[in-house]
Amino acid sequence: MIEAYSFGKIIVNGQTYYQDIIITPKGVRSNWWRKEGHCLHISDLEDVLLETQPEVLVIGKGSSGMMKVPNEFQKTLKAKNIEVIAENTNKAVQIYNELATKKRVVGAFHLTC
What we know:
globular, alpha/beta
C-alpha cells in the first residue's frame, strides 16, 4: 500500500523512496529508470510485465505529468490484455491503492516533474 506521495518522495509499506519505483505484487523495485527519461517504452517494463502478468498497469507520469506514455505503448499492452492507466502521480497513487486489493496490479511511478 502506498501511504504517501509528494514531489520526489513516496512511502510504501513504511519504506521511503526518493527515486522512481515499480511496485509489483512481490514488492518494490527502487531506482527505476527509463531508456528515455521522460518517455516510456515497452523495454522499460518488459521484464516486470512478463514476470508478474498484471491485469492493470498504473503509471504515475510525475507531479505535473511530464513523462509521456505513447499510444503505441498503450496499444501493445492492450493487445496483451493489460489495462493501462496513466495519470499524474498524485492521482495514479490513489488509483493504485484502490485497485491493489481487487486486481493483479503493477504500479510504475515517476516521482518528480
